[in-house]
Prior knowledge:
alpha+beta; Beta Polymerase, domain 2; Four Helix Bundle (Hemerythrin (Met), subunit A); four-stranded mixed beta sheet; 53% helix; 10% strand
Amino acid sequence: MFVADLRETTIWPQVRAVVVSGSAAREEEIWDGGKLISDIDMMVITERSSLRLAGAIDAVIARHRAAGIDGGRIPLQALRSYGMLSFYEARHNGVVVAGDSAVLEVVPMEGPNDIPRWEAVRVIGNRILEHVKAAEGQGSWDSAVSKTYEALCEACLVLEGRYRPSFRERLAEIEDKPLGPIVPDLNIFARAAIESRLTDHRPVPKTPGAALQDLLVGFSVSLSKYLDSAGSLDQLINELGHRERHLLHRLYWSSLMLRRWRRPRVRVDPIIDVWSRALASMTARSPDSHVLDDWRICPQILKPARPALR
Length: 310
């Protein structure tokens, strides 16, 4: 068992709590017969944020990955500060299985209006990589299409101040009040994606090409609302690259690329560069052999929960 293994390590005294989050915490995990298809997300919360501690926790998780365990270390300060959807969901649905039972109370997001608009941009930007994965044979097209409409639903609910912390609650929310139609029939396909995850696992009736086009429209809308600006998707991403300047991200990425004997791209923050390359890979048929690996290790831009800005 993961927690028992973690307790036996020398790093256990530095662990504040272990939390089951994500679909497993909400009893929304995906099974195929008796086989678990989705991961069990574990948040190992620590007081400190050292890379060595993170590496040690990752090593323990790796020993249990075959059993479906995934996740990683979360410093307590990050939990207190950043307005991530995963933190919001953990606050409302996470299950503390070891350590401080009150640890999730530090998450400063009580309701959906506390989630920063940036999360709408981030959830859609990252879903573009699901299409890259499918194109490179590392994932299924059915999964990419389903995750497209899940992401569009989540982004719309964030922008509308109606985000709910579980698939069942999101389904109920959009049945009660349909999503803003940023793409044709969005509510129909969002419902199909969520119902597929929760019940029948039938593919969403949409081609991958049409789903990608809808995702890009959603990306444009989210960027436009976040930036309070208008323009084409290329123009909006270019503007985003000018506005978001995170020196530590760029320094870290430059160092990492140089150690891998690759020329670093320092024009924009690394995650924005990854999204741009993923778009080029899918829309211009310009294969990028590094983009998936880069995405998996790339630092993500995170924003404070909105109460911190008041």
